[in-house]
Amino acid sequence: MIYIIFVVSLAVLLLGSDWLIESAEKIGLSFGISPFIIGVTIVAFGTSLPELATSVASVFSGTSEVVVGNVIGSNIANILLVLGLTAIVGKGIKLDFNIMDVDVPLLLISAVFFYFAVSDLHFSLIEAILFLLALIFFLYSTVAGNVENDTERPKVAAKSYLLLVVGGVMVYVGATYTIYALEIIAGNMGISPSIIALTVVAIGTSLPEVIVSMAAAKKGKHAIAVGNVLGSNIFNTYGVMAVPSLFGELKISEEILAFPVPFMIAVTFLFAFVVMSNKISKWEGVMLILLFGFYISHVI
């Protein structure tokens, strides 16, 4: 039965992600927003809903240590797995603009902030508020100045708004039940909760990013794919850490400082290095996948 749930939820996730991409792009373009900004904001936040939902739920269930593991694992999976698969499926990624000016530096800053926030094994209310303010600043700095004042913007039908909402809900529900199925399957295999948080839950909550980015790459919409990864990681770091902490104290394990956190920071700087040339080759995608395999084997 659990395998049927897994297959059905994955199918819902696939269909929902397709609707989400198409409608988000149409709506964004009607407001004069570039495809990259659409990926960084609307699509990225939509695909990050599972991370937020599972993290809030873990606080209420008394297993808040899942939150930090989820953020770390998801950020690593987004860069290595999502970007790697996207580069392979899209036979390389090409960007026709420079993302090193604002977006990438803000991503690197978020990773450094995360390290200092968890280094004392305590995430305070003040830090949560600072993280939320940083998220708001990211949104403002990303969108401001990127709206094209073109008098002839494409008109969008009401159907697109409906598909955006329905697609987002389908991504959320599909991802939630896919994660649920994966957790049960992993539990039946005897995998410990800490490992599940850093691997199974992280990969499961990154499935929307995987599906959406690969779908965007297949359609040649590389800007949305890269923007999705970048925006999702910043939302994970700031939003998925801050919001759950408002409902209860986050438990932070000392073990995460030994390998997972330094590796996440290293991977984030690797992302900046890879996109510096505004293109990611198919073989760089293969390299990212191999690094993800190393991460999984090391954690397990």
Largest pleated sheet: 2 strands, antiparallel
From the coordinates shown, what is the CATH architecture?
Up-down Bundle
Query: Cα distance, first to last residue?
Result: 27 Å
Shape, principal axes of CA atoms = globular
What is the number of domains?
Answer: 1
Residue fraction in strands: under 5%
* Multimeric status of the protein: single chain
**How confident overall, as mean pLDDT?**
83
Number of helices: 12
Biggest sheet strand line-up: 1-2
Computed over alpha carbons, the radius of gyration is 18 Å
At the fourth CATH level, what is the homologous superfamily?
A: NCX, central ion-binding region
CATH class: Mainly Alpha
Structural class by helix and strand composition: mainly alpha
Order of helices and strands: HHHHEHHHHHHHEH
* Proportion of residues in helical segments: over 70%
Instruction: Find the count of extended strands (DSSP E, 2+ residues).
Output: 2
The CATH topology assignment is A middle domain of Talin 1
Poorly predicted sequence stretches spanning 5 or more consecutive residues: none
